[in-house]
């Protein structure tokens, strides 16, 4: 158990912007993994879901990101966003930027629709 004064010193060493005045007259228990397991999980016979513990986090590859970016269900949203940007280029300043990005989004929508047809032929 640590007192509030000790917590103040620890927090001030990490960041002077942390306000610990709200912790007055409170006791704080710092628990490590083994103490948590022994005191809480073993006594109550309740354990965390083992599926979440054993699951491994898979890294995203660049190819997965590109496949997700050009998924066929995204074609409609790319198309409408591209149209909105092209029509807003008439009203808004920096019209060249809006025309380029809108055209790029329209090209994305075409690629999203055509890419599955090329993948079926291979």
* Largest beta-sheet details: none
The overall strand count is: 0
Bulk shape: elongated
The secondary-structure element order is HHHHHH
Secondary structure class reads: mainly alpha
Rounded Rg: 28 Å
Q: Name the helicity range.
A: 55-70%
Notes on the protein architecture:
The protein is mainly alpha-helical. 63% of the residues lie in helices and 0% in strands. The protein has 6 helices and no strands. The protein has helices at residues 4-14, 33-44, 50-54, 62-69, 75-88, 95-121. The longest helix is centred in the C-terminal third of the chain and has 27 residues, at 95-121.
Q: Topology of this protein?
A:
Layout: H1 4-14, H2 33-44, H3 50-54, H4 62-69, H5 75-88, H6 95-121
What's a concise summary of this model?
With 122 residues, the chain is mainly alpha-helical. The protein is built from 6 helices and no strands.
Q: What tags apply to this protein structure?
A:
122 residues; mainly alpha; elongated
């Amino acid at each position: 158990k640590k007192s509030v004064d000790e917590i103040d010193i620890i927090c001030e060493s990490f960041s002077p912007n942390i306000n610990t005045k709200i912790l007055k007259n409170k006791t704080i228990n710092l628990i490590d993994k083994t103490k948590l397991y022994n005191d809480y999980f073993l006594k109550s016979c309740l354990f965390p879901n083992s599926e979440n513990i054993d699951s491994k986090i898979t890294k995203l590859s660049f190819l997965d990101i590109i496949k997700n970016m050009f998924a066929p269900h995204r074609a409609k949203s790319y198309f409408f966003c591209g149209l909105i940007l092209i029509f807003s280029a008439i009203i808004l300043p920096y019209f060249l930027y809006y025309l380029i990005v809108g055209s790029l989004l329209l090209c994305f929508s075409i690629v999203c629709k055509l890419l599955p047809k090329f993948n079926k032929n291979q």
